[in-house]
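Posting for a labmate who doesn't have an account.
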Amino acid sequence: MDFDFELLQELTETSGVPGYEDRIRELVRRELEASTDRVTSDAMGNVVGTIEGESDYSVAVAAHMDEIGFMVRHITDEGFLQLDPLGGFDARVLRAQRVTVHTEDGDLPGVIGSVPPHTLSEEQREEKDRVEDVHVDLGRSGDDVRERVSRGDLVTMDQTTVELGDHVTGKALDDRICVFAMLEAARRIENPEVTIHFAATVQEEVGLRGATALGGDLDPDLAVALDVTVANDVPEFDDADYVTELGDGTAIKLKDSSVITNPKVHRRLRSVAEDEEIPYQLEILPAGGTDTAGFQNTRGAKPVGALSVPTRYLHTVTESAHVDDVSATIDLLTAFLETETGEHDYTL
């Protein structure tokens, strides 16, 4: 791998659920302070590293740093934790997973309970799993748990990010792998013609809230959002379900359920990719939204574009992406920003 896997591992393994991104925010701030001219944050917790350009024309690049997780909503008499979701988890894959419970006095390891399959009734086998029905087992008595854990404490998945052939797999690749791509681009860019704001946004998983607020505050002339997208190149999908495929390059977004990207922006992204011989694919996502919509919908009409990293098994603890697609995303983002003069007409 020709980029900093240790940083990617640190980013993905650090906790930070919507509204409580403290730990990941400090890590991102550390990296931005080393590569940008100034770093600021706002009342929501968005962090922005700015590289001053030769003109006042500004471009915002955004990748969200929050990950899906949970909040403790109830502690049973026996000491089991019942959860409320922060973002959309696939409840089918939660059973028997390790988790970390974040309390005021420190972190506690736990597991999400599972009923042995041979003890399930026919009715139970047919029931649909819901996040609200799972529980966390801390291996402690009820009194001990209540002394340590409070209603409102946070829970994240406990998973190590590893290399798997040409892939990386772990939790929170959505969207830390794009935060990583953004940080790598910020490292590479020198003396841009335009001012560039590299923004790690918050609360995307619960409604694009950080980007919507930040778009109004920054008021950029152009915005490019980075996020993961569905790679459905696995046996469970038919060719007609195609969105993207691992190993075919970065994905230039045309649309998702929240946004139609500016045609002139995505055409210039394609042109830059072809000029630089960077592999890419076109993304048409039938469901799901990204920070792109947050920037498009604040303070008047804004030209927006988006790059996506194709990722398998989204919203699970084993999200998987191809290292070449990550590299292509970094390369195209860097080349696009370095060739932005502020004189391109994105008006339709």
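Reply:
Got it, the structure tokens are right above this. The CA atoms of residues 216 and 298 lie 5 Å apart.
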